[in-house]
Amino acid sequence: MGGGAAAAAAAAAKRRREQEEERMTAYARDDLEGWEFKIVRSIDNRFKRREKLERLCREEATAGWEMIEKLDNSRIRFKRRVDRRVADPQMPIDPYRTQVGLSELGLVAVIIGVMGAGIGLLFLFLEVWN
Hints:
Layout: H1 2-24, H2 29-32, E1 35-41, H3 50-61, E2 66-72, E3 75-81, H4 104-129
Antiparallel strand pairs: 1-3, 2-3
């Protein structure tokens, strides 16, 4: 039951962030001409640390991405000229990655795994004590 609640909470938080991003990233038609945009996310607030943010920006720059803004400690918005796509097959990173570190689904899996292990240990201790 706890795992289901964690998954539901993660899904609700994701919906809220996506709605917020839609409001924050409205573009005029002229803004879009010749550009593509993406948001790179991290669930562990890694962009709070300057060195992690700078590393991400260096990696993304290899694929032509420029940081537009830091939305918060877990989301960074980038843009790049569409003509940079031709070099994508030679990139050392996935130029369209939008997640770094553990994903939300991965976090839910870890939480469920830890809870399952805890319940298993509880039953083991109860069996030993009986």
